[in-house]
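Homework-ish question, so no full write-ups if that breaks the rules, but can someone show me the predicted structure for this set?
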Amino acid sequence: MAGAAVAATGSSGVPGEKVDWRLAAPLGLTYLAFFAAPFAILLGVSFYADPEQTRLGFESWTKFYGDAFYLKVILDTLKLGVFAVVATTLLAYPLALVFRAASPRAQRVLIFTILMPLLTSVVIRTFAWIVILAREGVINQTLIGLGITATPLNLLQTELGLVIALTQIEMPLMLLPLLTIMNQMDQNLIDASRALGASKWRTFFKVVLPLTLPGWIAGATLVFASATTAFISQSVIGGARLVYLPALIYQQVTVVYNWPFAAVASLTLLFTVLAGIMALSWLGRFARTS
Amino acid sequence: MQQALARQLLKAAVTNSAGIAAILMPTLAAPAAMTAQPLTLDGITHSYGGGLAVDNVTLEVKGGELVALLGPSGCGKTTLLRIVAGFIQQGNGKVTIDGRPIDTLPPNRREIGIVFQNYALFPHMTVAENIAYGLAARGESREVQAQRVEEMLATVQMARFADRKPKQLSGGQQQRVALARALAMRPRILLLDEPFAALDKNLRLDMQIEIKRLQRQFALTAIMVTHDQDEAMAIADRIAVMSQGRIEQLGTPVQVYDEPATLFVNNFIGSSNLLNGQVEAAFEDGYRVALANGAVWSVVSKARFEPGQPVVVSVRPEQMLLADEPAPDRIPVTLKLSLPIGGELIHDVVSASAESIKVAIARRPGISSADMALGGTGTAYCGLADHARPALFSASNP
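A: Not a homework solution, just the prediction itself:
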């Protein structure tokens, strides 16, 4: 009771008073040396006007943001992140509801199944998807064998194929936080909603969804951040036809040798991901359950 | 600290005002067109993976009656409640409300109000939104919702808390909201799942009065699940004592307490002294029993016993007395311990045959020492009080 009162009023300042900041020093210094400093350098490099880095100026920025092709790359990258979030959400919620209702034994099996993909490397999983999605791959052979289609479908090097592969690859990131919060939810709340005359769907949208939103936001943040930056999956499955920011950066650094331009693209990717995360945490403010 | 104090004061004020209101307005106009509907359970049987949780339970709850399902944990009382609510589909048997079977209806179409042990208020909604939840689900207009919410808040004395979130309320206040939320739907049946278990002891009586008042005011047929016999005795019209999925005895609180049908009911309701003995002779409405400790008692019983049969005699502690004079129906005892518990003084005495017997005697104010009650000797003779109704059970029946 007293604890709740303190938390509710936020007075007396007990939390935050006795923080020993020295505990954060090792990680803080590491970040300073290997993240903040390189970031400053990156920002500096982006203000060189030419690839040889002889002249300062805004040319790299204006070139990047003045070109419809690069703007489309930004938009495609954002879109890919959104699609991955939507697809993982649509698949994860039903599974989370099943998980909730399952016995502890079944839950252990489910958790193991969900975690298993994380035990294999992203590269291997990505190449496995090539085998599945290719013109002579598992899906096309099955469809042709069943007579559903005469000519093989183009799945590789398409956005659809990439979203399918990313959905599978990123699924654990969405599921783990969602399952955790789903399992903590009081069954009585669902029963209460049902007894008060709400249908199963109404109960889901009015009770289950709002109360599990914090878990979804954590999952969606992880999925969005890793889908937009998934260089390997994007290049291997998307191929040369689909260009996203990570591949663009790689190309500018190793092929074109235009580092100022690559720096602009890198910063753009960083802010793109950041914008997505901020949008999600802004959503999270509506999910306050207290 | 000051805020905590203010909160305490506020809580006390709220609790008090409700208690006063309960006394002042027992006949507050009941909502119109309310007729209490009877609930019938007919041969309900349910098992979980091999174990029989509910075993052929038949129970008729009359319109406007409050029946308590009383029993230890695992006796099937909660399963039975969840079957009535529709959260569990029973293996066998029928549930009918007002003569119509409801077994095929999902929980959201049964029109049953439930108050959960932990109240289960929606934490992301305000008090008013919680109360309006069921009305909105039913598709009532906003005006009807607002009007009903206001009415219910007034009924449970929570009008000032309409915009609070459940976490900002005390346990008693949360329970009032949970009641208001259930009653706003004008349910046909009210189910109460361990309604007082999560409340402070001194709040319980207030809430017991409150629930009884609302149940009467709304003319509701109600079932309460509890493991606490005092709660059941306090507010139930009838008590169904359950054990191992079956109803051991169904009766008014007085019947269950004074005439327990089985040794289980006897031991579960209240405390009692169990004394071994043997039937000596039968007479018109009972038996003469020779106790192992030497005393001979006449016990009224409707059950059938043969002379010579070993029996167990059960006597409530408050139906016994301690005397200074010996008599054929008194047991010589030595005093071990006395405890002043509330208005009673509980003496723990031991007979010559090493039986431990509890004797409860109304405590006179200021006296707490057993020696004073016994005249300082430490030995006494333990017998039946004038109004005593000892119960007789077969010794082979555990």
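Now go work out the reasoning yourself. Hint: Residues 68-101 of chain A form the longest helix (34 residues).
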